Amino acid sequence: MFRAMLRGLLTHKLRLVLSALAIVLGTMFMSGAFVGGDTIARGFENLFSTVDADLDVQVTAVSEVPESQLGPAPPTALVGPGAVAAIEVVPGVAQTTGQVLVDGALVVGSTGKVVPSTGPPRYGSGWVGDDSGFVVLREGRPPDQANEVALNASLAEASGLGVGDTARVLTPGRDLPEAYSVVGVFGYRGDRDSLGGETNIAFTMPTAQRVLIDAPGRFTEVDVTAEPGVTPDELRDRLAATLGDGYTVRTAEQVASDQADAVQGFIGVLRNGLAVFAFIGLFTGMFLIFNTFAMLVAQRTRELAIYRAFGASRGQVNRGVLAEAALLGLGASIIGLALGAGIGYLLTVLLEGLANTDLPVDGVVLRAYVVLATIGVGVGVTVLAAVVPALRAGRVPPVAAMRESAGPDRPLGRLTLAGMVVLAAGVTLLALRLTGVVDGNNVVLLGGGTLLTFLGVAMLAPAISRPVTSTLGQLVSFSTPGKLGTRNTGRNPRRTAVTAAALMIGVALATGAGVFASSAKAGITDAFRSDLTAQLLVAGDLTTGQGGFAPARARAMAAIPEVTDVAALQLDTVVFGGRDTVVGATDVGAARVIFSLRTASGELRTLRSGEYVVDADTAKRDNLGVGSVQTMVTARGGPMPERLVGVYETSSLISGPLISTDDAAGFGTRLAQQGYVRVADDAVVPIVKTELEALFADNPLVTVSDTSSLVDQAAQFLDVVLAILNVLLGLTIVVAVLGVINTLLLSIYERTREIGLIRAVGMSRGQLAHMIGVESVLISVFGALLGIVVGVALGVAIVMALDSSGFLSLTLPWGYLVAILFLAVVAGVVAAILPAVRAARLDVLRAIAYE
């Protein structure tokens, strides 16, 4: 029985290939995401194990304040001389080596700007030498004077600096660079210029302690070597007992694992993102597989009935169809797995290109779980899509072998009712999450709600496919081929709807993202135009959060003629009221004017030490009123009481606690990241901008720009995100086009005699191609329209749910929607090419005689 059904399936190889492509694409992206992530992760694990091979235990200090999320800042949790002395006398300690390693050390190039980075850290360190030979001095010598540095080879190449040159270096917390003589260039074992794309400026240790951490005699970590016979675990426990809770003590293995986990964070985001889109591709592929097997079952009615007449049971027929699906899924998944390994390798090459360095990877890592998951998901999705067609196949009665056809299409009443129930369930789940009635459970509420919404719309689609395609068909019904193509599209509404549903999913997601992006752009633009009164912005690198200027320079900015208000904004992450909070320090009197802040209670004025103001939402959340006292703990200062003197209405430009500039002395960074300048007369803005540029000419990271640059930057970020989303969602569009091709090919197969007859009565090959093209375009446009309606609804719901943020202003991207419809027409034309060619090649006489 199975062999007979398998032979029947293999007689239609083109259909199998087209159906298998959907699974191949989905499993390829899925396995590629995991293979690429595992390959990079394994490389960094091996690298960090090698880097830390010469230490047994590492000691670092614990900070009471969370690490700043606003960019690199000098660390404040340091190991002092007392702790080092205590470490040295612990039994089992053979040697201690203090280290200083800080992100944010920048070299100023010959253009006066900082040498750019593609993302990896830009370290400054204290030179300690290396007896193991891991660090290799390639040129010159180590630094031994306060004005000397050595550069790692990747930085030397990027900056064009070498031994004997002068390097201007900007270190964290400083707004002016210092000049150093380059005396050495170093690399790493294995002829590596860097470990993972990072740059490194090595100072003498006393200089590193002064310019990187502003703490002479202190270290960011201390590496400890154990005496022979003392295991790292034993030494770790002894050190932990001696030093107490203020320090973290880890073995070299734990350090390497933590370092690898930090890399895994980025890899995980990349891997999970690709896996999500792989799942979307597989989900859309289910519609293609379902349609293929449904049509194959319908076209093999007589064949299946003969099997039943010869004694095959329903179960045998069911199992036969499911076995066909399992074999199809297995073969496609194996191909997808093999291609995914190549995609994973290409992913590492792409990241190497973006980082402009060699990642520590060697070969391709293919773990057992990737093989099992890829094949399991591919086979499972294929079998699941074939369940309903398999059940239909088992219901074919033996008497059907004597009929010409399988009978009329079934009524749509039950399917439509079920679709309404599923759609209502999906909308309910989304509404519960988006309205905030239920918090958390994003996978169930958002993921499940979106999935049920798509399924519900797909189940309702057959009921509306005929009227919609008939209406659209009026545009092309001026010719006989156009009329025939329109009627053919409405023949089987289930088939048309399922084919269009695959395209609907991709278009809906892209449209929803487009609505959100356009609404975000409009909201941000409106907020800046209506509430921000400053015309000029003085800021460090807004992308990386690095750089800034001394807050005291705000007085020089305010002294420029025609400048009426200046608000220098210094931000840091602190503990405020027992909660990790981003706090801003500024002149609230000026900020009230510049950000159009409105008083909700109390007063908004220039603050004295120990005073703060906060937005109304935060005040409501924390039950705060004028006079409430909160304790603030900063990176460089102890607990400090802050008394609330004013509450400002929630603003889309600024939020959270604002304190006096005097109380920011304990911040981790001593720089103001942004400065907003209000000019009395717009006509003199260019003149003021020129004077500000002259004032900050000595600061290579600070730029003076029009405040509209903030809007442009936000818009560019949204455009990049949307572009990446659309590229990845192109996978679903490819699957949808395959679905249209497959449906039309199968439709031509079952209409072979009909095509022969219309050719015999005078229809030319060109007219036949026109007819099939109309069918293809109508299916594609119907799917696109479904996707646009669902996507706009989802986008509007998300915007309305998040409207309280103030950053969203509901806007429909009409140009984007029109472009999607145009692309749907193009996709329909492309999808029609192969079926049209196949139909045109049919021999007329053989087609007429076909049974």
Automatic annotation (TrEMBL):
It is a multi-pass membrane protein. InterPro entries: ABC3_permease_C, MacB_PCD, Macrolide_Exporter_MacB. Signal peptide: none annotated. Belongs to the ABC-4 integral membrane protein family. It comes from Luedemannella flava. Residues 276-398, 727-843 form the ABC3 transporter permease C-terminal domain. It comes from the Bacteria. Residues 17-241, 496-694 form the MacB-like periplasmic core domain. The chain crosses the membrane at residues 274-298, 325-348, 368-391, 412-432, 444-464, 497-517, 720-749, 777-802, 814-837. It is found in: Cell membrane. This is ABC transporter permease. Keywords: Cell membrane, Membrane, Transmembrane, Transmembrane helix.
